[in-house]
């Protein structure tokens, strides 16, 4: 195991997730199209949740093989359990991210239906145009 | 180079791939292309989840992010129009403003 | 400017914002969970499930997951509410669907998908998997069916709004009943038990069955996984059924929309 290469690649991974976060926040804020905003929002959500899983990871050491948090032995002795605790990664962030992904999908489906309504109501999904249309509506009502 | 190096090399390279895919997805004017680039990013993330030893998340992430997201977004794009055009005010109102 | 900001944030993270990355060891609470999840020597605290993630999702942090289910229920309910006029109607457009080859292939693959999803839910406490995963895998099947066969074809064969809604409510009622089943049982026996209790604690000896035959059954986890699978599957199918309606059907919802909501 080459510790320099491992450190470098891990740094590269962390930098990539930060760049992804920055790009998707830019997409949510700056792009006027609502569908583009939804796409950027899904990327933002995934990047945020992958950080949680990253915290639960563990450094590989010589002679230590990591494993997912699943016990394969159905009749464990106390030695097996000790080795399992030593080798397994953190299950807590995985459990939290798991539910967050499914709920994110439900919320995205809700955003999709709202976008369909906006499209039918205003004839466009561009937020700049929608803002001007609404101002025009209010202005006419005042007159 | 043993397999631990290989694991971390794959992780770093797929993270780089996800950055490229995200940048293209945000930049692209064609919304259909944006959805496809976003699902490429999801494939890279699924690989990273697998390398981070989270098989539970891979099971749910592949189905949700590579299967269902693109399908409902393509459905939405079919109804709202494919291109991210610069619709301006004059076009919308027929030029009488 | 943005580049500098991102790089400095990364540097801070690497210095210790998230701890040392990758961390040298997992935290103490994770070690606790890992040690106790299938530890037959400490039977007052175990979950009888070799899969630590499912044990945390439905046993150690069960109430969290219950409220996540409530959020999920609310999000799907809100999506349906926006299309309440058309939700109960059949589609007026008789779609021919795709070609015969695609239809036959899809019919076979759909059965396989649902089987995989159900087995993921049933084995959720033994292998990676569980209710949420199974629901997400299973929700792909009706989505593909609706695209390939057409919505009206499925509606004529019994896939209706009312049935999906009752399946969903049944599954959520199942989650509720399971969480208080042991409490009620203990009350009838004249004893005392906690709500959301899986295995026997030191204060109350009542417990869901730990083993079926000689395989660990995880007690409460098995029931929760199956009910959550049904709830997620039915919820997503409901939304897809509405979203995949034809334009003629959906435009009925928007009639009168120009006067405001």
UniProtKB/TrEMBL annotation, chain A:
InterPro entries: CPA3_antiporter_subunitC (IPR050601), NUOK/Mnh_C1-like (IPR039428). The keyword Cell membrane applies. This is Na+/H+ antiporter subunit C. It holds the Pfam family Oxidored_q2. It is found in: Cell membrane. It is a multi-pass membrane protein. It comes from Zestosphaera tikiterensis. GO terms for cellular component: plasma membrane.
UniProtKB/TrEMBL annotation, chain B:
GO terms for cellular component: plasma membrane. InterPro entries: MrpA_C/MbhD. It is a multi-pass membrane protein. It is found in: Cell membrane. It comes from the Archaea. Its main location: membrane. Signal peptide: none annotated. Keywords: Cell membrane, Membrane, Transmembrane, Transmembrane helix. Residues 16-81 form the MrpA C-terminal/MbhD domain. The chain crosses the membrane at residues 6-26, 31-52, 58-77. This is MrpA C-terminal/MbhD domain-containing protein. It comes from Zestosphaera tikiterensis. The lineage of its organism: Archaea, Thermoproteota, Thermoprotei, Desulfurococcales, Desulfurococcaceae.
């Amino acid at each position: 195991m080459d510790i320099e290469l491992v450190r470098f690649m891990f740094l590269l991974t962390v930098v990539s997730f930060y760049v992804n976060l920055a790009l998707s926040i830019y997409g949510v804020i700056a792009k006027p199209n609502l569908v583009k905003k939804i796409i950027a929002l899904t990327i933002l959500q995934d990047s945020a949740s992958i950080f949680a899983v990253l915290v639960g990871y563990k450094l590989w050491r010589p002679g230590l093989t990591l494993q997912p948090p699943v016990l394969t032995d159905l009749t464990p002795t106390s030695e097996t359990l000790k080795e399992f605790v030593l080798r397994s990664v953190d299950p807590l962030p995985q459990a939290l991210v798991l539910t967050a992904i499914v709920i994110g999908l439900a919320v995205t489906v809700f955003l999709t239906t709202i976008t369909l309504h906006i499209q039918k109501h205003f004839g466009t999904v561009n937020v700049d145009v929608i803002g001007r249309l609404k101002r025009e509506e209010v202005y006419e009502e005042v007159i | 180079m043993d397999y631990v190096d290989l694991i971390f090399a794959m992780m770093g390279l797929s993270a780089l791939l996800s950055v490229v895919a995200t940048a293209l997805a945000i930049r692209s004017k064609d919304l259909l292309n944006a959805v496809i680039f976003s699902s490429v990013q999801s494939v890279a993330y699924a690989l990273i989840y697998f390398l981070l030893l989270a098989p539970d998340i891979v099971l749910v992430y592949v189905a949700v992010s590579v299967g269902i997201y693109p399908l409902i977004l393509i459905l939405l794009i079919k109804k709202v129009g494919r291109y991210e055009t610069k619709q301006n005010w004059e076009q919308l109102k027929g030029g009488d403003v | 400017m943005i580049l500098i900001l991102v790089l400095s944030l990364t540097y801070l993270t690497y210095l210790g914002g998230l701890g040392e990355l990758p961390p040298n060891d997992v935290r103490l609470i994770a070690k606790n969970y890992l040690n106790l999840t299938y530890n037959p020597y400490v039977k007052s605290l175990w979950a009888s499930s070799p899969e630590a993630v499912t044990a945390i999702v439905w046993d150690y942090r069960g109430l969290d997951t219950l409220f996540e289910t409530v959020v999920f229920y609310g999000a799907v309910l809100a999506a349906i509410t926006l299309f309440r006029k058309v939700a109960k109607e059949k589609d007026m457009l008789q779609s021919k669907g795709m070609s015969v080859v695609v239809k036959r292939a899809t019919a076979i693959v759909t059965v396989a998908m649902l089987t995989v999803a159900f087995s993921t839910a049933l084995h959720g406490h033994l292998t990676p998997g569980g209710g949420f995963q199974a629901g997400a895998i299973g929700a792909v099947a009706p989505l593909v069916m609706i695209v390939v066969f057409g919505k009206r074809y499925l509606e004529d064969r019994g896939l209706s709004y009312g049935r999906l809604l009752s399946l969903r409510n049944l599954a959520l009622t199942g989650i509720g009943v399971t969480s208080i089943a042991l409490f009620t049982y203990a009350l009838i026996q004249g004893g005392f038990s906690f709500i959301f209790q899986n295995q026997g604690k030191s204060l109350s000896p009542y417990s869901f069955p730990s083993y079926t035959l000689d395989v660990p059954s995880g007690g409460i986890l098995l029931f929760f996984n199956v009910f959550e699978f049904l709830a997620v599957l039915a919820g997503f199918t409901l939304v897809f059924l509405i979203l995949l309606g034809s334009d003629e059907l959906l435009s009925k919802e928007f009639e009168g929309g120009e006067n405001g909501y």
